[in-house]
């Protein structure tokens, strides 16, 4: 993923003020920063949930921001996991995982179920395929949401504060799944306040404030020995 000169305004409010960020294949990049700094807007611009005001976004060889691009084809290559799990409440776990594969990718039932079961194994939920979302804990629902995204075979996974809505005792299971994905070589851009996850798993950490990247580098540098006063002030509040 390569983002170059990304600007985004909502009316008079300039939310992204020229962002450059690259995530190479197999890399994990964590984005940290205060609330309102534009982290979610950045992720939403990557898969065109928001239209950038200017700048370019490339993902898996496609220029997302090219007006000629088939955005549905590009979106299939990008998995997104939000703070809210957004599962279909009337479908079982298996139904949640197979419906998008069948609708969007045109897979048949047998193939979609095989892919779904493989991904439920990856997130440790093989025993929950017949459960409805309301019968699952928040952490289990988020792992279903991750398995659903993986079932589409993405080349890039975007995570927007995936553990922020969870009770503290459920956070670890979701982070463990993300850690395993990283070890398997998944390319990931992760907005998170979990500094221990960023320290252990990220290849690079990007600190954003007020719509700009203030500092970026390996976690031991950005989290361990931040150079910028704004990064130090933020870390003092969250650590
Ligand atoms: P973060 O994820 O870092 O908390 P956001 O990207 O959600 O930040 O928001 C950055 C700024 O953009 C905030 O001031 C927010 O109010 C504003 N914003 C986000 N989405 C919209 C929108 N659809 N319309 C207007 N303002 C928005
Ligand atoms: Mg956000």
UniProtKB/TrEMBL annotation:
<dbReference type="InterPro" id="IPR027417">
    <property type="entry name" value="P-loop_NTPase"/>
</dbReference>
<comment type="similarity">
    <text>Belongs to the ABC transporter superfamily.</text>
</comment>
<dbReference type="InterPro" id="IPR003593">
    <property type="entry name" value="AAA+_ATPase"/>
</dbReference>
<feature type="domain" description="ABC transporter">
    <location>
        <begin position="1"/>
        <end position="235"/>
    </location>
</feature>
<dbReference type="InterPro" id="IPR003439">
    <property type="entry name" value="ABC_transporter-like_ATP-bd"/>
</dbReference>
<keyword id="KW-0813">Transport</keyword>
<dbReference type="InterPro" id="IPR030679">
    <property type="entry name" value="ABC_ATPase_HisP-typ"/>
</dbReference>
<keyword id="KW-1003">Cell membrane</keyword>
<dbReference type="InterPro" id="IPR050086">
    <property type="entry name" value="MetN_ABC_transporter-like"/>
</dbReference>
<keyword id="KW-0029">Amino-acid transport</keyword>
<dbReference type="Pfam" id="PF00005">
    <property type="entry name" value="ABC_tran"/>
</dbReference>
<dbReference type="InterPro" id="IPR017871">
    <property type="entry name" value="ABC_transporter-like_CS"/>
</dbReference>
<keyword id="KW-0547">Nucleotide-binding</keyword>
<keyword id="KW-0472">Membrane</keyword>
<dbReference type="GO" id="GO:0005524">
    <property type="term" value="F:ATP binding"/>
</dbReference>
<protein>
    <submittedName>
        <fullName>Amino acid ABC transporter ATP-binding protein</fullName>
    </submittedName>
</protein>
<keyword id="KW-0067">ATP-binding</keyword>
